[in-house]
Each structure stands twice: as structure tokens, then as C-alpha cells.
């Protein structure tokens, strides 16, 4: 009797995955294999656990009914946000941030494809509440601010995708709100839109801004000086008008507005830069060389803490002056300024630019003269940084060895890279610097820097075999014994040191 044949019923074929793809990694191909019922179950489970995800799913379902249904969801949430007054403590902050993100996501993913204009209206309404929201939540890490920046960027991107006439109308419609609150979120949006607007829209916006400026001046009591806040708001309006002048390539309007803002204290660098760009180098030189009111910029303690470079403004001014002189064909004057700038500040780009403009065979002589000047510079740490970065490592090593006692361990931003650069071919100079760095860390008990100190000690031990023991005092073994004797109780440091 013949054996019955087994019949196999083929099920649905599994999707073909890309080569190398993991079958457990979510992707369109792997998720399709789950089938609709399983996916629906997963979505329903997540909506029960995650309120933010539930809102996204609800908005996606509303989008099937049209923009009005999505708008109703967004408007309810915006109304609730506008009416809220309570402070958001740390326990509620995470959920609050997630909810703000969800609002923006729904506007962009569901409302925008259906009705870009309505999406812009909701984004603007959301941004109008930025000050109230930020006053109700501790945003020390900038997370909430980043959400409003995301909304601002989206507004600019959506408006930029509209037909030019419509984009101009949207931008013009922002002017009144900006004038009412020059420090609010609308100013950055307008500023970002200006470069892409057409000429007719720019004219309309500039006219409205001029009217707002006039109203600001008229609104003050002429018998009293303008309040600092009102004057600062007016400057914001004029800055936006300057952006329009730049877009139109009109330096004269830019200068007139600068004079209106800061009579006698105009930003001569920005004015000169625009005149040079307009092919008017003679006028640019006149502006860049004008005497400046010394009260234009006074560095505050906050500036210094933030790392404000006191030499930066003059460096920028002089670099532009040199560029203008080159444009005028006054090469000799430009070269003199480059060299004097280098001599005064050890400005490496100035020296490089000076050398590239010299005739053949003169550049090498000028380079040696420049390196001699750098090696003898009265500020040794700046001199060392220049020589290492140029690079002129032989000279840097000679400078270190000639003056071993002057190097300060707290100047680690200079000494650390210098020691690393010198270690390969100049072990004595590198040893001097590593020792100064390590001594500074241990003598100051700077525990946060102990890992760096342990590395410096390891570098010193690696260099020890390449040194003549008589070249440095104390010798390597004696130096380590001295560290043990003077800092042996700093267990946090020695625990990092490999014997």
C-alpha cells in the first residue's frame, strides 16, 4: 500500500530583509512581519502607558478627518497652556517638557501637511506663550528653551516653503507683534526670514518698522530721558532694519541707522566692512580709522568670567584695516601693520600673511627675524605657545631649558600641549614642563586634576631613560622620592599611579 504524501500549506512569506539586518531591530521590513493585529495591540498597550504617545496617536486619527479636527486638539492644549499659572516643580517637569514637545510635534507632523497656514498660526500662538512658560519652570539646562527654538526654526522653514508673496505677507504680519515686544520670540523669526524675502516684501516690512520706530520715539515723554528699556527696544527695531539694508546691499542706509542708534559711538568695523564690500574702500578706510568713543565697550566682570577677549575688538579692527589697505593697493602700509601686529601680540596669522606677500628669498630672513622676536618675547608662556604651534620646536625647547624656573603649573593650557609636542625629540624640555604641571597639581591639592597628574608622572618615567641624569636636578629617581616624601598622604593621587 502506497504511503500517503504529506501536504504542507505555505503561510505568508516573511519579508526579505536587507543583507546584514537584524531581525529584532524595528524597521519597516521587520515590523511588517508582525502583521496588523499584533501592531495594533502594541500601539494600544503603549497608549495606555504613555500619555504623550496617546496624544500623538489621537492626532494622527484626527488627521484622517481633516485639518479642523487636528486644530481642535491643538487649540484645546494651547488654551490650557495659556490659562495655566502654577509653578512646575521638579516632579512635574519631565511630563511638562514631554507635553510641550508633543504640541510642537503634532503641529508639524499632522497639521502642516494638511494646512501650512494653520500650522503657522498655531506655532505663533505657541511661541507667544514662551515668556509665561519659562517663568513657571526651572529651565537651568535649557531644555524648555530648546523646544521654543525648535518651534521658531519650524516657523521659518514652513514660511520659507510658501510662495514668495505669501511668505512676505506672513512676515509683514509679524511686525506689529515684534514692535510691541522687541525682546520676544518674533524678532529672531523675522530676522531669519529676511534673507529669503522678495524686494516688495522687504519694502513693506521696512516701512512698518520705520512707523514702529517713530511711534516709539513719539510715545515717550519729551521732558524726560528715554527709559533704558524703551531705548533698548528701539535698537532692536533698528537692528532689524539694518538686516533689511544688508539684504538690499545698501550700506548708506545701514550707516544712517547706526548713527540713529549710537550717535558718535557707531560700530566702525561693521560700517567699514559693508563699505569695502560695496567697492568703496576709501570711505571704508576713513571709517576704520575714526577715533572711537572709549565708552563704546567696557568689559564687565561677567565678560571676563565668560572669557571675553579684551584684545579681540582691536584685532578685528586692525585685520579689516589691513584688508582695506590691500584693496587700495597700499601694500607697504598693510605689510607694516601686519608686522607691528605680530610684534605686539605674537599674532601667528599676521606673520604668515606677512611672509606670503614677501618676494622670494626675503621670506626666510623675515621668518627667522620673527622667530627671534618670539623667543625673546617678554611673556614667556605666550612665546612658548607661539613657538609650539608654529611649529618651531627646537626654539621652544631652547626657551624651556634656558628658563626652567619660570613655568607656572596652572598654565596647563600652554604647558600640557607643549610638553606633549616636545616629548618625542626634546626629552629634557618635556621633563621640565611635566614636572611643573605635576608639582602645580600636587602642591595645590587639585584632586580633580589627579588623573592628569598620574599621566604626567607616567610620561616622566617614560622620559627618564632618555635623559642624562646630570642634566636635571633632582634626578628622576630622586624626583619621585621627593614626591613620595612631600605628597605621600595624597592617597587619591597615588591610587592612580601604576608602580
From TrEMBL:
Which Pfam families did the record assign?
Answer: DUF6880
Q: Which residue ranges are recorded for the region named Disordered?
A: 1-27
Q: Which InterPro entries does this entry report, sorted A to Z?
A: DUF6880
So which domain of life are we looking at? Answer: Bacteria
Which named protein is this? Uncharacterized protein
Can you name the source organism? Methylobacterium longum
Amino acid at each position: 500500500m502506497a504511503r500517503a504524501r504529506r501536504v504542507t500549506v505555505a503561510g505568508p512569506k516573511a519579508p526579505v530583509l536587507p543583507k546584514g539586518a537584524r531581525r529584532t531591530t524595528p524597521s519597516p521590513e521587520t515590523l511588517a512581519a508582525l502583521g496588523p493585529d499584533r501592531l495594533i495591540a502594541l500601539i494600544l498597550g503603549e497608549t495606555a502607558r504613555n500619555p504623550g504617545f496617546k496624544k500623538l496617536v489621537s492626532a494622527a486619527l484626527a488627521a484622517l478627518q481633516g485639518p479642523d479636527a487636528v486644530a481642535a486638539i491643538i487649540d484645546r492644549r494651547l488654551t490650557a497652556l495659556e490659562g495655566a499659572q502654577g509653578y512646575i516643580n521638579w516632579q512635574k517637569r519631565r511630563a511638562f517638557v514631554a507635553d510641550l514637545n508633543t504640541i510642537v510635534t503634532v503641529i508639524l507632523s499632522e497639521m502642516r501637511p494638511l494646512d501650512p497656514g494653520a500650522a503657522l498660526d498655531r506655532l505663533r500662538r505657541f511661541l507667544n506663550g514662551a515668556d509665561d512658560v519659562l517663568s513657571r519652570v526651572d529651565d537651568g539646562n535649557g531644555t524648555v528653551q530648546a523646544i521654543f527654538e525648535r518651534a521658531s526654526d519650524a516657523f521659518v522653514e514652513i514660511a520659507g516653503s510658501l510662495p514668495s508673496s505669501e511668505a512676505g505677507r506672513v512676515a509683514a504680519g509679524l511686525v506689529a507683534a515684534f514692535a510691541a515686544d522687541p525682546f520676544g520670540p518674533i524678532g529672531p523669526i523675522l530676522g531669519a526670514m529676511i534673507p529669503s524675502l522678495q524686494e516688495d516684501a522687504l519694502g513693506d516690512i521696512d516701512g512698518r518698522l520705520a512707523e514702529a520706530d517713530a511711534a516709539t520715539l513719539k510715545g515717550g515723554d519729551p521732558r524726560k530721558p528715554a527709559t533704558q528699556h524703551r531705548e533698548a527696544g528701539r535698537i532692536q527695531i533698528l537692528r532689524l532694519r539694518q538686516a533689511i539694508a544688508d539684504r538690499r546691499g545698501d550700506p548708506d542706509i545701514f550707516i544712517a541707522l547706526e548713527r540713529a542708534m549710537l550717535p558718535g559711538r557707531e560700530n566702525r568695523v561693521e560700517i567699514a566692512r559693508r563699505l569695502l564690500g560695496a567697492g568703496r574702500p576709501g570711505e571704508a578706510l576713513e571709517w576704520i580709522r575714526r577715533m572711537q568713543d572709549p565708552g563704546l565697550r567696557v568689559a564687565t566682570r561677567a565678560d571676563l568670567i565668560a572669557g571675553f577677549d579684551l584684545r579681540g575688538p582691536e584685532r578685528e579692527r586692525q585685520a579689516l584695516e589691513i584688508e582695506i589697505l590691500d584693496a587700495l593697493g597700499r601694500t607697504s602700509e598693510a605689510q607694516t601693520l601686519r608686522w607691528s601686529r605680530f610684534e605686539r601680540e605674537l599674532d601667528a596669522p599676521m606673520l604668515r600673511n606677512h611672509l606670503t606677500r614677501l618676494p622670494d628669498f626675503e621670506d626666510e630672513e623675515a621668518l627667522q627675524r620673527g622667530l627671534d622676536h618670539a623667543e625673546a618675547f617678554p611673556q614667556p608662556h605666550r612665546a612658548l605657545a607661539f613657538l609650539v604651534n608654529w611649529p618651531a620646536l627646537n626654539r621652544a625647547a631652547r626657551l624651556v631649558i634656558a628658563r626652567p624656573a619660570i613655568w607656572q603649573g596652572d598654565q596647563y593650557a600652554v604647558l600640557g600641549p607643549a610638553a606633549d609636542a616636545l616629548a618625542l625629540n626634546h626629552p629634557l624640555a618635556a621633563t621640565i614642563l611635566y614636572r611643573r604641571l605635576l608639582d602645580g597639581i600636587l602642591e595645590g591639592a587639585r584632586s580633580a586634576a589627579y588623573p592628569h597628574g598620574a599621566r604626567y608622572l607616567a610620561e616622566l618615567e617614560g622620559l627618564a631613560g632618555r635623559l642624562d641624569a646630570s642634566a636635571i636636578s633632582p634626578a628622576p629617581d630622586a624626583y619621585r622620592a621627593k614626591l613620595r616624601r612631600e605628597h605621600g598622604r595624597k592617597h587619591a593621587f597615588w591610587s592612580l599611579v601604576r608602580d
